[in-house]
Write a structure and sequence with these properties.
The chain has 280 residues and is of the alpha/beta class. The chain is built from eleven helices and ten strands. It is globular and about 65 Å long.
Length: 280
Amino acid sequence: MKDIRCILFPVEFSTRCIAAADQVTIWAKQFTAEIITLHVIDPRDFSSDPDRYADEFFGARPTLEKRGQEDLKFFGNQYLKDLNVRRIVTSGDTAREISSYAQSEKADLVMLPRDHQNIGSRLIGDSITGKVLDTCSVPVWTSEHAESQARIVPKHILCALHIGDELSLDAANERLLETVRSVASRFGAEVTCLYIGNSNAITLPAIAGRLAGVQHEIQGIGSLEIASGNIVSGIQKAASEHQADLIMVGRSRPGKLSYGVQVSVLKIDHRAECPVLSVF
């Protein structure tokens, strides 16, 4: 991702969306980006048994979509003033529609606030955000703490790298660092890159060579730190020490072992006090 020209902002008119609108505004102004506000009418919100009441939902859909357009217009006028905003109302599975529109509208970034997670919800996962992270190839910004971050401009980025001897990881890191450079340049932010591995892996020649390559690649935009231990705790600690305003991580497709497995991204988001932007 070289630039952000289009931001997809799913809106369901909650307090977390209102809080996140300030962040969407900051990013849209910094990149001079168009904002697409997307409201999804999910049959599961219409009825606990959507299959049984499919005919009723089909009959009510035109009214619900008209109301959604009116609500999106009001939301934009209130919280996204003086910005280039396009409104889309659709129906279907929320996560699937978000991923689909991110692709069809050629969005460069999805900004997706989510509810604060208690112990129970963390165990079963965040189904909508998790599914979007799992299926959407567009970079996803997510935050469980949007209310406390509303007007914060990213000035220090923590970039967590996953380094191994797989070529796919090298490609993933290249995409991640390209995005980091773009975001850091636009916001004038400092960058700290972080690699967390076990003590044996860090000394392996292949890993050491890749770390040296990363250090060379980030010259001029930031520094590289190497640590060992638990990944999520290590990221949280480094973010706190550097007072990071944004954490950026890679994200892999299902079944791949990396920072990017959706549960790890959600855990990082839960424990950190700043948003997480994850990149395929």
